[in-house]
Amino acid sequence: MKLRRWKRPLLIASCLVVPMAGAVAIWLLQEVEYERISSPDGGYTAIVTYRRIEAFRPSIPGQSGEKAGFIRIKDMAERNYGKIGIPMVWMSRDLEWTDLGASLKLICEWNFAKREYRFCNESQTEEMVKYAK
Question: Kindly report the CA angle at 117 between 116 and 123, in degrees rounded to 5?
């Protein structure tokens, strides 16, 4: 008899908790903009982001730039030129705009004319080439 009395409240609680946990998980995995870097001619913009969950990781004061993140480049028409993961968002300050596109030292090179970007795999054993969609 006691078990039956708790069945309905437990069902109602689980129906509320599961969607709320899913909503929190989605919220934590959303990307937050860290910085925008425009090319000298203003034709392209590098957008640096990190996942919101990274903000909840413990760090000492002054080390907020040590979050893992992403960098993607778009042109003025909002065409995407590729998105890559970066170990720390502060590394985006090393982005250099070149004649052919952009370069992030030791991480990635973008060629805007070919709409391709080159980067090394995680184990740094081979170069990967992808074409922007």
Answer: 145
Judge whether 95 and 102 are in contact, CB under 8 Å.
yes
pLDDT in tens, 75-107: 999 999 999 999 888 889 999 999 999 999 888
C-alpha 80: how far from its chain's center?
A: 14
Judge whether 129 and 118 are in contact, CB under 8 Å. yes
- Give burial (CB, 10 Å; 0-12/13-18/19+) of 57: exposed
| Tally of structural domains, the chain | 1
Q: How far is CA 106 from CA 58, 89, 91, 123, in A?
A: 27, 14, 10, 13
Distant-in-sequence, close-in-space partners of 30: CB < 8 Å, separation ≥ 6: 51, 52
Residues 6+ apart with CB under 8 A from 88: 65, 66, 67, 68, 69
Q: Which two tokens stand for residue 41?
A: 């001619």
Domain region containing 78: 2-131
pLDDT band at 3 (very low <50, low <70, confident <90, very high): low
H helical segments located in 56-99: none
